[in-house]
Design brief:
With 285 residues, this protein is of the alpha/beta class. The chain contains 12 helices and 13 strands. The protein folds into 2 domains: 138 residues, Rossmann fold (3-Layer(aba) Sandwich); 140 residues, Cytidine Deaminase, domain 2 (3-Layer(aba) Sandwich), CATH 3.40.140. The N and C termini lie far apart (49 Å).
């Protein structure tokens, strides 16, 4: 049996590739509470040092593949989770090290011309070929997976449900093209769609495009056929604050296909702002 397999009393140590936000820390805490050792690799420019501070950790540039693999192996990690938002780099922004160049040569530079899902699928494939098992964050942090139904005190009315249905169709079309995972719809009009800028910037744009009358909705769903080990849509209290600032009436997300960064805080923020939260059964729409 290898050193990696023997680490942590026979249980493989969990390596966490951490982007921004609180979720990397919550995944690490859940793993530790379950009796598993962790090592967190913060991606420079994205990971938040205070989130990583309670756990064994190191930092690496996103393009320094050699250092990332070295840190995972030196800390006896066999399983890996990728969690937290990262602004996708272009090829020339990546500044890959020697190992990174070798890996890019293996997968081809064409993946940088596709969408996020194309690139993430290549990363998952490479990690597997390098001997690591990639897990989804929801496999560790099970309570973060979004449930079905209305959460909180507010519920969507018929106009909001019509906008949600329209939003699901638009978001699914975007996802099929590997562009984005969400959109904003008001009274049947698509005010904004998510692309490389991310949800926060999309909501900022939508604020300047809203019409009079009843406010719109934010809809977030996973991409058709998406590998759920990486980049599930994430909703948190910050999302709620920005949706409220954009004049929206609520947020809809795919049940079982989205993460709630902190369920209690997210529901409380929605109740305080007077917004609804609803987990959708996509198969039934």
């Amino acid at each position: 049996m290898t050193m990696t397999a023997m680490a942590d009393g026979g249980r493989p140590r969990l390596g966490i590739l951490a982007g921004g936000g609180p979720l990397p820390g919550r995944v690490a805490a859940a793993a530790v509470a379950g009796g598993r050792a962790v090592f967190v690799i913060g991606l420079e420019g994205f990971a938040e040092p205070p989130v990583l501070a309670p756990f064994p950790h190191g930092f690496s540039r996103i393009g320094a593949a050699g250092r990332i693999l070295e840190l995972l192996r030196a800390n006896h990690c066999a399983d890996v989770v990728m969690i937290g938002p990262v602004r996708r780099p272009g090829f020339f922004d990546l500044r890959p090290d020697a190992v990174g160049m070798r890996l890019i040569g293996r997968i081809g530079r064409s993946v940088f011309g596709g969408g996020d899902d194309t690139l993430l699928a290549a990363v998952v494939k490479i990690l597997g070929e390098e001997g690591f098992r990639v897990l989804g964050a929801h496999e560790i942090l099970t309570e973060a997976l979004a449930p079905a139904g209305v959460l909180g005190r507010m519920a969507p009315d018929p106009q909001a449900m019509a906008d949600i249905k329209r939003g699901v169709a638009v978001a699914r079309a975007l996802g099929a093209a590997d562009v984005g995972q969400g959109c904003v719809v008001q009274q049947g009009l698509v005010l904004a769609v998510e692309a490389i800028e991310g949800t926060d910037a999309m909501l900022g744009r939508a604020a300047g495009l809203r019409r009079g009358g009843m406010g719109g909705v934010l809809v977030k769903v996973s991409k058709p056929g998406q590998d759920r080990r990486a980049d599930l849509p994430t909703i948190g209290a910050t999302t709620i604050a920005q949706a409220a600032a954009a004049g929206l009436r609520g947020v809809a997300f795919e049940a079982g296909g989205a993460l709630l960064a902190d369920r209690a805080a997210t529901i409380a923020a929605a109740d305080q702002a007077g917004l609804f939260l609803i987990g959708l059964d996509i198969a039934g729409m």
